[in-house]
Structures are given as C-alpha cells and as structure tokens.
Amino acid sequence: MLSLTLTAPFISTTRSPYTLPRRPLLIRARTQEIETPQPPPKSDLLPKLNRYSSRITEPKSQGGSQAVLYGVGLSDNDMKKPQVGISSVWYEGNTCNMHLMQLAAAVKDGVREAGMFPFRFNTIGVSDAISMGTRGMCYSLQSRDLIADSIESVMAAQWYDANISIPGCDKNMSGTIMAMGRLNRPSLMIYGGTIKPGHYNGKTFDIVSAFQCYGEYVSGLITDDDRMTVLRNSCPGAGACGGMYTANTMASAIETMGMTLPYSSSTPAEDPLKLDECRVAGKYMFNLLEMDLKPRDIITEKSLRNAMVVVMALGGSTNAVLHLIAIARSVGLHLTLDDFQKVSDAVPFLADLKPSSKYVMEDLHKIGGTPAVIRYLLEEGFLDGDCITVTGKTLEENMKFVPSLAEGQQIIRPVGNPIKASGHIQILYGNLAPEGSVAKITGKEGLYFSGPALVFEGEESMIAAISENPMNFKGKVVVKRGEGPKGVPGMECALLTDGRFSGGSHGFVVGHICPEAQDGGPIGLIQNGDVITIDINKRRIDVQLSDEQLTERSRKWSPPPYKATRGVLLQLFFSPASYIKSVQSASRGCVTDE
C-alpha cells in the first residue's frame, strides 16, 4: 500500500502540509524537514484498481466505448488505469466558485502524476449572495439536488472508479457529498476555500457587511456613499463567504466527518496551500482505491455526530441541520432533529466568529485551522477519534502531530469559559411547529421573546416594508411564510419562518418551521396581531390560539397556488414527479428521493 504523510501548515505558507514522503501517514509539525515525495506507482500495479472503468475498457463488445476513449486521448496503457472523475462547481459569476477551474486543473495534474487517468466535468451552482432578496432564491436549495444528481449521473454513466469533487458555495458541499454517498466509490472532497476579508480605512468587511449596510442605510445610520464603500470592499477576491456561514460550516463539518484532507476547510482560497492540497489529492485517491475505502465506510453514525459537534462548537449555520440529515440519508442512515438537540445539550459554543462576533475563517487558519480545533475537541473528549478518514487513518491518528491552537489566540474560547455552555442550535416544538423548528440562539438574544405577529407572504414584501418603515418592526415577531421547500421552493430568510435562514443571520431567529405554510402548517394560519411566544428554556414556540381556533382557521384555509408553474422548479429533471410535490420537509432534510 502507498504510504502517505501530511505536514501541518500552522500559519506558515512557505511549507506545504501536503508533502507525501515514504512512511506511514501522520501529520508532522512544520519544524521537521520535508522529504522527497514517492514517485508515481508503476502502471503494472494498476489494473486491479479499475474496478468500475474496466466494465467499458476491457470487454471486446464495448468497442464504441473504447473508440471514444481513444478519441479523447487515452493510450493502450491508459486503458488499464483507474479513471477518476473530477467534478467542480465552477462558474464565473460568484466569488465562491470563480477559481475552481484552476483548482480542478491542479487536481487533474496530481491524478495523472499518481498514475491514474483524470476526467474533469462540471456541474451547476447558484449564488445565494446574488439571488438573496429576490425570486432567484427559489432556485437555491434545489441546486443541491441538481449538483448531487449530475455528479451521480456522470460518474455512474461513465463508469469512473473514483470521484474528487471541488465545491465552493453553500449547498455545493452537501450536494457533492450526497452524490458520493449514493455512489459509494472511493471519493474525497476539496473545499474551494474561504475568501479573505475586505479592508478599507481601518475597517473590515465581508459579505454580511454588504447585506447589513442596507438596513443601516434605511435607518439613517450611514449615507449612500458609506453604503457603496462597504459594497466595493466586501469581496476582495476568490473564496466563499468568510464567516462561519453555511459554506465554511459545511466544509468544517465534512472535514471533521473525514471526507476531506486535514486543513481543507480552513485554508483560504487564494493561499498557495490550497493548490498544494489539489496537487496531492491524486496520491491520496490512489491510496483510497488500493484500500477500497468508500464514503459509507467513512460517513457513519459516529462521524456524523463528530460533524454535529464541530458545528455546535464553531457556532455554525443552522442550514447544517437539513444538509447533514440529507447526507446521512445518502448513506442509508437516519438523522433527526432530536439528534441535533442531544449534541447541542452536550457541546459548548466556543468560537468568536462572524456572524455573531468579529473573526473570520482566515483568522482561524492563522491560529492553527480546523485541525487545531479538532485536536482541542478530541483532547476535551467531545469527538470520537476512532472514525476512519480519507487519509486512510483515523481522525485521532491524523491529529496526533497537529500543533495546538496558537498560544494567546482569542478566537476559540476554552471549554471552561465558553461563549455559551451549550450549543447555539436549539430544536423547538409547539403548536406553531408540531414537527419541529430550528432556532439559532448564540446567547446574545436572550432566552424568551413574546410579541404580536407581523406577517409577510414571502421575503420581497418584507424587504419592501422595511424600506418603508423600519421602526414598525420593533417588538414584533416577524413571520415570513411561504418560504419552505414547497412554498418558494428553495427556502431563504431570517426571523421566524417556515424556510431556512442565511448562515450569516444573527439575532432571534427561528426557521425550518414544520409543517410549512404550503402544506397547511400552523404558520400558514397566523394573522397580524396574533401573539407568538418563543421560550428557549422550554424549547417551545407557540401562538396564543386555542386548538379550537386553529382548527377553525384550518377549516377555512385553502392552499395557495404553487409559485412555480413550469420549468425546473415544477418538474425537476423532467421527472413525472415535480420538485415541489416530491420534496420532503426541512425536518427530513428537504430530500427528494422518496
């Protein structure tokens, strides 16, 4: 078996953490010398590894398949090599994704150097940052399923032996991992990396600064020139939104789950170490093929719990709830809302990261990155170190020589002095959410809120109302409905909603309220002025209406027409079953395959 070794980056960008010398895998401190990488394996060792591609490269009856492969450049010797599908979520219109073609090229070079044959292909992506606040968000969540379906389709149809996926934004990560789970062929993910923060006149900006400056503008706190300054300096280059928003949350969770190489989630997009990670991925993939180590060996009940632990410790996006539920389903496991509550009860909230605080992912990278956090959580007994990872070693073995968090750092609090003693994600039930809801409670909002409802049918009407009279929202429970997976479909919002809310949101927010309004859930029956109470200690969200009143309103209620009447939202992939009719609730991960 090919032996592999990682070194740790730990602040320095002059030494790669992805050197592969000739001895068993471990993660070495940066003070050690880098050894010469092992040369690519000889081709006569490879035929046993092309378990899937041999179905089209070997039978004489598959002449058409072989002719096409010769036509795209394979030699006789290449026909014996494992074929690796390299799927990137590249497109030019989003800072999260605009650099992924370059990363895919580096992965291709590394796969070829490792003695395998690489095939790049692309899938689609949707920028939440661009579409948020518009009807374009209808296409956001379902893009996850399109990504998963397209990767699964290409990999299975082309008989590729292994997959390396390169996602960049929000639902990209969960989409690629869902495809890997369904296929169950040797696979690993390379996160496109986080963006650097913007700087101007001593101030630091990121994408949430761009969202929030509108509220500051309509409230009269800043001028329009100030607003434009924020917009021009919030996104200074390539990479996903910089705080602990959905993209960085899912990347950190997936690294802890074991489906990426160490440091993948915290290495910035434009750091030279990201290209090093891409170049070496082929050697790790060769190792996975030799071991026949597949996603369903890595994504287990224990590793999913590890992923939930790191989400809680880092104060990650609540969207991790529905994405991890969907990932679990892709490997045949059942994850519930109550599983998240159990982890939240047991794990403290430790990270001083945006959106609830001031630091970003690049700052975490400088103090040791995600592996240093994993090491700390292992030492404190919060993680299961026995879980196998894509390195071929366990999580604990990977962390054995990872440097600790930098001395004096202020980003990750000690367990004895957490931001909050339990996790920020709280699962609430009540007569407003009989099937559950997900609240983000970081400790700054308080534990109780009660007030009259201010109801909006969708996000655009709410934004218009904010522009007209922002003070009208004070003391109200803002209800934005019709935003669930069927109602929009797609889900994106803040405050109190049957949809999900942005990973960049903060304040007293409750989302994923189930059943949703489109399905006749209680949230669809709320009227302006109804008193809604959110009680975190009791984990309840209730409207002050009797069962009889709700029943009477339900009797008079009729479902609103679907917002989508044609196209992909109504008939995903031209299937007889439409997306809005087949998609499950947020409490079941918004999956469409049942």
Give me some keywords for this one.
16 strands, 4-stranded parallel β-sheet, 5-stranded mixed β-sheet, 594 residues, globular, alpha/beta
List the helices and strands and how they pair.
Blueprint: E1 6-7, E2 27-28, H1 54-57, H2 63-71, E3 83-88, H3 100-113, E4 117-122, H4 128-131, H5 140-158, E5 162-166, H6 171-183, E6 187-189, E7 198-200, E8 203-205, H7 207-218, H8 224-233, H9 246-257, H10 272-291, H11 295-298, H12 301-314, H13 319-330, H14 337-346, H15 361-366, H16 369-379, H17 395-399, E9 425-430, E10 433-440, E11 448-457, H18 459-468, E12 477-481, E13 496-497, E14 509-511, E15 531-535, E16 540-543, H19 547-556, H20 579-582
Parallel strand pairs: 1-2, 3-4, 3-5, 5-6, 11-12, 12-13
Antiparallel strand pairs: 7-8, 9-10, 10-14, 11-15, 15-16
Explain how this protein is built:
The chain has 594 residues and is an alpha/beta fold. It is 34% helix and 12% strand. It has 20 helices and 16 strands. It has helices spanning 54-57, 63-71, 100-113, 128-131, 140-158, 171-183, 207-218, 224-233, 246-257, 272-291, 295-298, 301-314, 319-330, 337-346, 361-366, 369-379, 395-399, 459-468, 547-556, 579-582; strands at 6-7, 27-28, 83-88, 117-122, 162-166, 187-189, 198-200, 203-205, 425-430, 433-440, 448-457, 477-481, 496-497, 509-511, 531-535, 540-543. A five-stranded mixed β-sheet has the order 13-12-11-15-16. A four-stranded parallel β-sheet has the order 4-3-5-6, with helices on both faces. α9 (246-257) runs antiparallel to α12, α12 runs antiparallel to α13 and α12 crosses α14 (337-346). The longest helix is centred in the middle third of the chain and has 20 residues, at 272-291. Mean pLDDT is 86; it is low at 1-5, 7-15, 20-37, 485-494 and 571-577.
